[in-house]
Amino acid sequence: MITVGVDLGAGTTKAVVLESPDLLRARYFVRTGTKLEEAAASVREGVLQAAGLRPAEVDYVASTGYGRYQDKSRDIQITEVTCHARGAHHLFPATRCVIDIGAQSSRAIQVDGGRVRKFKMNDRCAAGAGRFLERISRALEVDLATIGPLSLESKDPTPISSICAVIAESEVINHVTEGRTVEDILMGAHQSIADRVIALARQVGVEDEVTLTGGLSANPGMVRALERRLGRHVNVSADSHYAGAIGAALLGQQRLQKLRAGADGKPNTYDTNIPLKPPVPIGT
């Protein structure tokens, strides 16, 4: 039973191929851009090539992310919160709190056995998400891919007080003219995001274990900032960036099993009360 999970995010679109709950056969991502339908088609083509599969060999496609309705080949669409909770639990089965930080939004999710108990999301401002760091990197003229490692070299982080991502650019420029180092400013920016996300997490309850998902899970500076602010370890896997897609693929397999068993005939709905089976870790 082969399922594809597609996560259409604001920054990147991710896809994974699952051959069984414990076998992740391939993963792939592309920049989302403005044409969501094309991004979905492109990532699906890329992940199938990586898996050595033809489209006809795929049994089920589950989509998630803010652009999930633009994936015309989907069999089902599932919310980001549900998929990230399921994917984080599969990567780290003891997960109790999920922190998901993407390009445009961030959220904190309390989970129990992979099921969502409650969650909180940031407002529409990008100050608590990846777009904030993109603006900071432009203001500092630093390549976005290097800001995480650079921030780890900080000796005295510079606080970024602005809650608006646009105004924060001016604040960064002022810090530069005052002689603050790039490394200190970058760590201050990471800590600013961490503070906003942790405020969400405290509303749902911060319990061990905490797992980070989303695009910023690949940023070591973000991991460091979260751990320092929380005062505890944060789980991160090489597949944390794909947690939403993994969750979608797992839930797609579960849904397909129900359909094949003749449970009902509604392929485009998802019942959040379906019990989740104990997962087998995919691994890092």
Walkthrough of the structure:
α6 (182-204) crosses α7 (220-230). The protein is 38% helix and 20% strand. β9 (210-213), α7 and β10 (234-235) form a beta-alpha-beta unit. It has 284 residues and is an alpha/beta fold. 51% of the residues are buried. Mean pLDDT is 88; it is low at 267-284. The protein is built from eight helices and ten strands. The protein has two domains: 3-85 and 241-260, ATPase, nucleotide binding domain (Nucleotidyltransferase, domain 5, 2-Layer Sandwich); 94-236, Nucleotidyltransferase, domain 5 (2-Layer Sandwich), CATH 3.30.420.
Overall tally of structural domains: 2
Tell me the CATH superfamily of the largest domain. ATPase, nucleotide binding domain
Largest sheet: 5 strands, mixed
DSSP strand content: 15-25%
Note the gap between the termini. 22 Å
The number of helical runs is 8
Provide the succession of SSEs. EEEHEEHEEEHHHHEHEH
Alpha-beta content class: alpha/beta
Helix content: 25-40%
- Poorly predicted parts: 267-284
Instruction: Based on Cα principal axes, name the global outline.
Output: globular
Q: How are the strands ordered across the major sheet? A: 3-2-1-4-5
Rounded radius of gyration (Å) = 19 Å
CATH top level class name of the largest domain:
Alpha Beta
